[in-house]
Amino acid sequence: MDFVPPFLVPELRGASCLPTPSASPVEMESIESGSTKSPTENSKLLDPAEWTILDVFNYFKKAGFEDQAMAFQEQEIDGKSLLLMKRSDVLTGLAIKLGPALKIYEYHVKALQMRHLKSSSS
């Protein structure tokens, strides 16, 4: 199958290739880690700006990007750094394959940035 850029396939724009859990990524992290705290009790998990390097690593690992999670860890990307990342940072700065890099930016980094902006402006 030939590569078709996402901008040429509007019906796929914004759709994730990953399974979409009914719970948010933060809730899934609590569920998968066996945490007894709910995401609302642990404000650190709710606010990506407070994430440590390990939190960022675990987020991408649990999202299905285990190999790419290592790149975030090696580059010492914490939550504040993650929220400052631009598309080009993810695509070229982390030395990860283009396909996963595009998915990571579009469906995770950008989504976390937008969620953070919404919560900080409220």
CATH architectural category of the domain at 48-122: Orthogonal Bundle
Distance between the termini: 44 Å
Order of helices and strands: HHHHHHH
| C-alpha-based Rg, rounded | 15 Å
CATH topology of the domain at 48-122: DNA polymerase, domain 1
Q: Report the sheet-strand fraction.
A: under 5%
Shape: globular
CATH superfamily grouping of the domain at 48-122? Transcription Factor, Ets-1
Low-confidence stretches: 4-41
Biased composition (Polar residues): 32-43
GO molecular function, one term: histone binding
Domain SAM: 48-114
Region (Disordered): 18-43
Describe what this molecule looks like in 3D.
There is one protein chain. The chain is mainly α and 122 residues long. It has a domain at 48-122: DNA polymerase, domain 1 (Orthogonal Bundle). It contains 7 helices and no strands. The protein has helices at residues 25-33, 43-46, 53-62, 66-74, 79-84, 87-93, 98-121. Helix 3 (53-62) packs antiparallel against helix 4 and helix 6 (87-93) packs antiparallel against helix 7. It is globular.
Topology:
Layout: H1 25-33, H2 43-46, H3 53-62, H4 66-74, H5 79-84, H6 87-93, H7 98-121
Helix pairs in contact: 3-4, 6-7
Structure characteristics:
single chain, 122 residues, mainly alpha, DNA polymerase, domain 1, 7 helices, 57% helix, 0% strand, globular, PcG_chromatin_remod_factors
